[in-house]
Design a protein that fits this description.
232 residues; mainly alpha; two-stranded parallel sheet; 6 helices
């Protein structure tokens, strides 16, 4: 009986030690799992914060993209309007060139013709320069060099107003870069004045006859005469 009790006691002691070891191992595993759970909880919080931040950034990017698309549409519309106006100006300048060429040729009637109409296509800048040269040639035929000095002394007070396309372009530029547009606004050559103010500053054009020669006309002027001399 004593041997059986001793064997039973030793077996219980071994089982107890085994259970203690298993309990310690389970405790370590539980501690490790707790640490992993805590780390995963921290990572979940980090990823949740990143997700919220990314969603806010996505909303901001969406709003920014919508704003850029709207500005792009406005810029395209302004550019299209400017090109349309430029094409209209080009057509009017071409018509003006033809009229000035016909006028200059008619002024040379009866004399050796020094100017011949050109069919060469021009850019807008070259077309404006050609019209300016034609206007100077017509002015030289009609008035000569009389009155040029007085014209230089008279300051130009004409204020140009912006066209609808130019106003649209200025609005787009002001939206895209308000600081630069605000700084450059005092030097802006375009004003909001009405077109009637521009029309009021135009002078009347004197009449002329295309078959009359003006090179042999004598003008009697005194020292008190001022202004232009216009042949009627």
């Amino acid at each position: 009986v004593g041997d059986d009790l001793q064997y039973h006691f030793e077996r219980l002691a071994r089982e107890k030690n085994q259970l203690i070891l298993e309990n310690e191992a389970l405790g370590q595993n539980t501690a490790q799992l707790s640490e992993q759970l805590e780390r995963m909880s921290i990572q979940c919080d980090v990823w949740r914060s990143k997700f919220l931040a990314s969603r806010v950034m996505a909303d901001e990017l969406t709003n920014s993209r919508a704003g850029l698309q709207r500005q792009n549409r406005d810029a395209q519309s302004a550019i299209q309007d400017l090109l349309s106006e430029r094409e209209q100006f080009r057509q009017e300048m071409i018509a003006t060139q033809k009229l000035l060429e016909e006028l200059l040729v008619s002024l040379q009637w009866g004399r050796e013709q020094t100017y011949y109409p050109s069919t060469q296509p021009y850019t807008t800048a070259e077309l404006a320069l050609t019209n300016h040269k034609l206007a100077k040639a017509v002015n030289a035929h009609l008035l000569g060099n009389v009155g040029t000095n007085n014209q230089k002394k008279i300051p130009s007070t004409v204020e140009f107003c912006s066209t609808p396309a130019e106003k649209m372009a200025e609005t787009v530029l002001r939206i895209l870069d308000p600081v630069t547009c605000t700084e450059s606004s005092p030097d802006n050559p375009f004003s909001e004045s009405s077109p009637t103010a521009l029309l009021a500053t135009k002078k009347n054009i004197g009449r002329f006859h295309p078959y009359t020669r003006y090179e042999n006309i004598t003008f009697n002027c005194c020292n008190h005469c001022q202004g232009e001399l216009i042949v009627l």
